[in-house]
Amino acid sequence: MAQTAILGAGVMGETLLSGLLRAGRPVADLLVGEKRGERARELTERYGVAVVSNLEAARQADTVAIVVKPQDMADLLAEISPELRPGQLVVSLAAGITTAYIEARVPAGVAVVRAMPNTPALVDEGMAAIAPGSHCDDVHLAEAESLMASTGRVLRVPEKQMDAVTAISGSGPAYIFFVVESMIEAGVHLGLPRATSTDLVVQTVVGSAKMLRETGTHPVVLREQVTSPGGTTAAALRELEIHKVRAAFLAAMEAARDRSQALSGE
Ligand SMILES: NC(=O)C1=CN([C@@H]2O[C@H](COP(=O)(O)OP(=O)(O)OC[C@H]3O[C@@H](n4cnc5c(N)ncnc54)[C@H](OP(=O)(O)O)[C@@H]3O)[C@@H](O)[C@H]2O)C=CC1
Ligand SMILES: O=C(O)[C@@H]1CCC=N1
Questions:
Q1: Do residues 1 and 29 touch, judged by C-beta distance below 8 A?
Q2: Pocket of ligand 2, candidates 16, 97, 119, 166: which has the most ligand atoms within 8 Å of its Cβ, to mutate?
Q3: Residue 9 C-alpha to ligand 1 middle, in angstroms?
Q4: pLDDT score, position 37
Q5: What is the pLDDT of residue 1?
Q6: Residue 149 to residue 128: CA distance in whole angstroms
């Protein structure tokens, strides 16, 4: 099978690595580029994967997945560019970095795909979107899709939607964890033991997510089913509206979208 290199084995790089292995990708087909010796030893012990220099990984691999921070992208591309060749596929998982940014820094003819995954990929419930660059054919896009599909669902989107995707599903798990954390804390304020509050909130979120996915019913309808006339839910939702939670979500996601747009220029 073709070799895939993962450059940048932090939170998301390790999530991709472990997902590919769970999906049955032979470890011999994977390479990791990691500059810190201690981290390299940890990854080899944990997964049995070969850890090599970025240059060596770029030389050997057919597909190079780049999972460094956007701010480290320019240096990494300058480092590996001498080893990249036309026909090779670069998949960038970095927020905000456009395919044009990468294409301008690699040899002509290198295919580039921009991907935006999220951390639920760690439990094979990821949501990723992919967008092709200008030298990318269907085979390249299908390869990027199969890479991301190892850990969950994948959508193909036009690149102009990627900053919004990043604001919704890329950063999205953090908003959900923030809501969960807030609800647990509220339970504690209401006098529940922390463990009880945590159990109640986590299962409520899992159950609600499962209902959304399995029934396909619109969230407004599901919310109305919970909201008995003159009851407890109506009282709570009124407070959420008074505190402008809906407007806060809109402002938050606009801020994430704007931050994503700014990252290519830094
Ligand atoms: N975390 C998330 O939920 C998501 C992250 N992403 C994207 O994934 C990318 C990585 O994010 P995340 O995993 O959170 O960040 P991390 O900081 O956890 O991981 C980045 C990794 O890249 C390594 N690195 C930096 N420079 C190089 C280099 N030249 N060669 C090899 N490795 C290098 C870092 O090593 P060291 O620590 O030694 O510097 C670190 O291990 C970002 O671009 C982010 O936008 C996308 C979607 C979701
Ligand atoms: O916060 C970030 O910039 C990255 C991209 C999406 C999720 N985490």
A1: yes
A2: 166
A3: 6
A4: 85
A5: 56
A6: 8
pLDDT digits (tens, 9 = 90+) for 28-80: 999 999 888 899 899 999 999 999 999 999 999 999 999 999 999 999 999 99
Which pLDDT does position 96 carry in this prediction?
97
Which token pair is 261?
A: 């747009």
Enumerate residue ranges in the chain where pLDDT < 50.
none
The per-residue pLDDT for 188 is 98
Q: Are 61 and 33 in contact (CB under 8 A)?
A: no
CA distance 176 to 100: 32
CA of 34 to the centre of ligand 2 (A): 20
Q: What's the 54 CA to ligand 2 centre distance in angstroms?
A: 23
Q: What is the assigned CATH class of domain 172-263? A: mainly alpha
Architecture of domain 4-163: 3-Layer(aba) Sandwich (3.40)
The structural domains of the chain, with segments of one domain joined by +, span 4-163, 172-263
Q: Which atom of ligand 1 is nearest to the CA of 76?
A: 29
* Rounded Cα gap, residues 12 and 25, in angstroms: 17
Ligand 1: which residue has its CA nearest to atom 29?
76
- The dihedrals phi and psi of 5, each to the nearest 5 degrees, come to -105, 140
> ipTM beyond 0.95?
yes
Q: Which of 31, 72, 123 maximizes ligand 1 atoms within 8 Å of its Cβ, making it the mutation to test the pocket?
A: 72
Please work out whether the CB of residue 117 comes within 6 Å of at least one atom of ligand 2. no
| Fold matches, 4-163 and 172-263 | no
* Ligand 2 proximity of 171 Cβ (cutoff 6 Å): yes
User: What was the pLDDT predicted at 124?
Assistant: 96
Say how many residues make up the chain: 266
pLDDT of residue 265: 83
Atom of ligand 1 nearest to the CA of 94: 43
